[in-house]
Design goal:
Organism: Geomicrobium sediminis
EC number: 3.4.21.62
CATH class of the largest domain: Alpha Beta
Structural class: alpha/beta
Order of helices and strands: EEEHEEEHEHHEEHEEHEHEEEEEHHHH
Number of domains: 2
Shape: elongated
Protein name: Subtilisin
Number of helices: 11
Radius of gyration: 28 Å
GO molecular function: serine-type endopeptidase activity
CATH topology of the largest domain: Rossmann fold
Strand content: 15-25%
Distance between the termini: 37 Å
Helix content: 25-40%
Family: Belongs to the peptidase S8 family.
Oligomer: single chain
CATH superfamily of the largest domain: Peptidase S8/S53 domain
Largest sheet: 7 strands, parallel
Strand order of the largest sheet: 9-10-8-12-13-14-15
Length: 373
């Protein structure tokens, strides 16, 4: 481990046929309308069509409502009839259905929601580019900025995406995270351009310590370690915080050496590599003896922007799955230490190949929960 500091860290449809006295007929767009007819005026459909010269598309007998397409001018004409109770424009209704991203399904997280494990009450600090707190699929309960930008405005998108993988809400739309009821804290240590100083990251780590966080996710890294970073990570360990970090996106080294970035490379950190849908190492995922565990990180769909969703790839997308995993484990075992939780992850991981490329293997929720009493 080197002692020099780093210069910067990057984020890894009633057609109406009224006759009008006009010399020129212009084609107008029509829209669907519901036409409520007064009870005293309710007639058979044929009589209604004859009386109003309407091409009724559908008749709701019990509601005394007709459906047809009309132009704005035709609507205005019909509204003048005393037989009409109301006219309402049809609306587009979109399906609102929650999507379970492949990686969340792959690790079996949804099965634990029904068993009551959701990360409730667990505080997770996301040291990143901030979190877009206005996003309807996220519950951001607090945070701080160390780059002089609002921690609850993520102009980059990276931090919001990471946050969604950890704890997107289990509702009727969008996506769902690994620990949907965990408390998200936006600790902004990277600016909108995706970069930040070592100083801002150290401050973010100590904020997490001082605010009693349970889990800390760092989807960021540098090729160089430093004494001050090592000391900060050690302090987090002493404060019983499960520190999870992205291993990096440098891929394999041509010389066979380690490409794992810092702070993931520190011994007490859960260093996370990325796998694809076939459980193979994603080509971009860094390798080295410091690797702890693997998680799905290729083509990850999560929250993005103020109300959107985006697919991104990287160990930055794998790390938050493990952070969510840690939140579930801590909820199940409130008295287990951070190091014990880390060891549980290691002991229950599914081997995938050589440690240099896969660490101890793929994170396994089922196996880990079976180990915890």
């Amino acid at each position: 481990m080197g002692k020099r500091g780093v210069n910067g860290v990057t984020a890894c449809g009633f057609a109406c046929l009224f006759a009008f006295s006009t010399d020129v007929v212009h084609a107008e767009e029509t829209e669907g309308y519901f036409i409520g007819v007064k009870d005293s005026s309710w007639l058979e459909r044929e009589e209604i069509e004859t009386s109003f010269e309407l091409d009724v598309e559908y008749e709701y007998d019990e509601l005394k409502v007709l459906y047809a397409s009309m132009t704005d001018e035709e609507v205005a004409e019909l509204e003048r009839s005393e037989q009409i109770d109301y006219i309402e424009r049809d609306q587009v209704v979109n399906v609102e259905q929650q999507q379970v991203p492949w990686g969340i399904e792959h690790i079996g997280a949804p099965a634990y929601y029904s068993n009551g494990f959701t990360g409730e009450g667990i505080d997770v600090a996301v040291l990143d580019t901030g979190i877009q707190a206005e996003h309807p699929d996220l519950n951001v309960v607090g945070g701080e900025s160390f780059v002089y930008e609002d921690p609850f405005v993520d102009s980059n998108g990276h931090g919001t995406h990471v946050a969604g993988t950890i704890a997107a809400l289990d509702n009727d739309f969008g996506v769902v995270g690994v620990a949907p009821e965990a408390n998200l804290y936006a600790v902004k240590v990277l600016a909108g351009n995706g970069s930040g100083s070592l100083n801002s990251i150290i401050q973010g780590i100590y904020w997490a310590i001082e605010n009693d966080m349970d889990v800390m996710n760092l989807s960021l890294g540098s090729s160089t370690g430093s004494t001050v970073m090592s000391d900060a990570i050690h302090a987090a360990e002493e404060a019983d915080i499960v520190v999870v970090a992205a291993a990096g996106n440098t891929g394999a080294s041509q010389t066979g050496g380690s490409t794992v970035s810092y702070p993931a490379a520190y011994e007490s950190v859960v260093a996370v590599g990325a796998t694809n849908q076939s459980n193979g190492r994603a080509p971009f995922s860094s390798v080295g003896p410091e690797l702890t565990i693997m998680a799905p990180g290729d083509q990850v769909y999560s929250t993005y922007g103020t109300d959107g969703y985006q697919t991104l790839s990287g160990t930055s997308m794998a790390s938050p799955k493990v952070a969510g995993f840690a939140a579930l484990l801590r909820e199940k075992n409130p008295h287990a230490s951070a190091s014990e939780l880390r060891q549980m992850m290691i002991d229950t991981a599914m081997p995938l190949g050589e440690h240099h490329e896969y660490g101890h293997g793929l994170m396994q929720l089922e196996a880990a929960f079976g180990e915890i009493e």
